[in-house]
Amino acid sequence: FFRAASLDDAWTIVTRLFTTPWTNPGFPMLMVGLIAGVWAYQFIWESRHRAVLETRAVRVALAAAMVVYLLFFSAKGGAFIYFQF
Q1: Closest by CA position to 22, among listed 11, 40, 36, 8
Q2: First-to-last C-alpha distance (Å) of the chain
Q3: How far is Cα 29 from Cα 73, in angstroms, rounded to an integer?
Q4: Are the C-beta atoms of 44 and 50 separated by less than 8 Å?
Protein backbone atom coordinates (compact mmCIF):
# COMPACT_ATOMS: atom_id res chain seq x y z
CA PHE A 1 0.00 0.00 0.00
CA PHE A 2 2.68 2.50 1.00
CA ARG A 3 4.76 1.73 -2.07
CA ALA A 4 1.92 2.10 -4.55
CA ALA A 5 2.86 4.16 -7.58
CA SER A 6 -0.46 6.01 -7.64
CA LEU A 7 -3.63 6.48 -5.66
CA ASP A 8 -5.38 4.16 -8.09
CA ASP A 9 -2.84 1.40 -7.37
CA ALA A 10 -3.26 1.94 -3.63
CA TRP A 11 -7.05 1.68 -3.94
CA THR A 12 -6.68 -1.54 -5.95
CA ILE A 13 -4.58 -3.03 -3.15
CA VAL A 14 -7.15 -2.08 -0.51
CA THR A 15 -10.10 -3.46 -2.49
CA ARG A 16 -8.32 -6.75 -3.21
CA LEU A 17 -7.74 -7.25 0.50
CA PHE A 18 -11.47 -7.72 0.91
CA THR A 19 -12.58 -9.13 -2.45
CA THR A 20 -10.01 -11.73 -3.51
CA PRO A 21 -11.52 -15.19 -3.00
CA TRP A 22 -9.79 -17.86 -0.92
CA THR A 23 -9.77 -20.11 -3.97
CA ASN A 24 -7.44 -17.78 -5.84
CA PRO A 25 -4.45 -19.81 -7.11
CA GLY A 26 -2.21 -17.05 -5.76
CA PHE A 27 -3.27 -17.86 -2.19
CA PRO A 28 -0.49 -20.06 -0.84
CA MET A 29 -1.58 -23.45 0.39
CA LEU A 30 1.21 -23.18 2.93
CA MET A 31 -0.82 -20.46 4.64
CA VAL A 32 -3.87 -22.71 4.76
CA GLY A 33 -1.71 -25.42 6.33
CA LEU A 34 -0.33 -23.03 8.92
CA ILE A 35 -3.79 -21.81 9.87
CA ALA A 36 -5.02 -25.42 10.18
CA GLY A 37 -1.97 -26.30 12.28
CA VAL A 38 -2.54 -23.43 14.71
CA TRP A 39 -6.21 -24.33 14.94
CA ALA A 40 -5.38 -28.00 15.67
CA TYR A 41 -2.78 -26.99 18.26
CA GLN A 42 -5.33 -24.81 20.06
CA PHE A 43 -7.93 -27.56 19.91
CA ILE A 44 -5.53 -30.10 21.43
CA TRP A 45 -4.34 -27.58 24.04
CA GLU A 46 -7.89 -27.12 25.30
CA SER A 47 -8.69 -30.86 25.28
CA ARG A 48 -7.73 -33.62 27.67
CA HIS A 49 -4.72 -34.43 25.45
CA ARG A 50 -2.85 -31.31 26.54
CA ALA A 51 -0.09 -33.41 28.11
CA VAL A 52 0.97 -34.54 24.62
CA LEU A 53 1.84 -30.96 23.66
CA GLU A 54 3.88 -30.54 26.83
CA THR A 55 6.29 -33.37 25.99
CA ARG A 56 9.84 -32.49 25.08
CA ALA A 57 9.66 -34.16 21.66
CA VAL A 58 6.64 -32.14 20.57
CA ARG A 59 8.13 -28.86 21.82
CA VAL A 60 11.42 -29.52 19.99
CA ALA A 61 9.55 -30.47 16.81
CA LEU A 62 7.48 -27.28 16.94
CA ALA A 63 10.56 -25.14 17.51
CA ALA A 64 12.37 -26.86 14.63
CA ALA A 65 9.36 -26.34 12.35
CA MET A 66 9.33 -22.63 13.20
CA VAL A 67 13.05 -22.30 12.42
CA VAL A 68 12.65 -24.16 9.11
CA TYR A 69 9.71 -21.94 8.19
CA LEU A 70 11.71 -18.79 8.92
CA LEU A 71 14.71 -20.04 6.94
CA PHE A 72 12.81 -21.04 3.82
CA PHE A 73 9.76 -18.80 3.71
CA SER A 74 10.80 -15.48 5.23
CA ALA A 75 10.39 -12.42 3.04
CA LYS A 76 13.36 -11.09 1.17
CA GLY A 77 11.80 -7.62 0.96
CA GLY A 78 13.55 -4.35 0.41
CA ALA A 79 14.62 -1.78 2.92
CA PHE A 80 12.26 -0.65 5.62
CA ILE A 81 9.89 1.97 4.19
CA TYR A 82 10.84 4.71 6.67
CA PHE A 83 14.49 4.55 5.65
CA GLN A 84 13.44 6.39 2.51
CA PHE A 85 12.63 9.59 4.40
Answers
A1: 36
A2: 16
A3: 13
A4: yes
41 within domain boundaries = yes
The residue segments making up the domain with residue 16 are: 7-84
* 50 vs 38: CA distance, rounded Å: 14
- Could you tell me the pLDDT band of residue 70, with boundaries at 50, 70 and 90? confident
The percent helix, strand, coil of the chain (3-state, each to 5) is 65, 0, 35
Q: What is the pLDDT of residues 12-51, one digit of tens each?
A: 888 877 776 656 666 677 778 888 989 999 999 999 999 9
The verdict on residue 2 lying in a domain is no
pLDDT at 79 over 70: no
Per the structure, how many domains does the chain have? 1
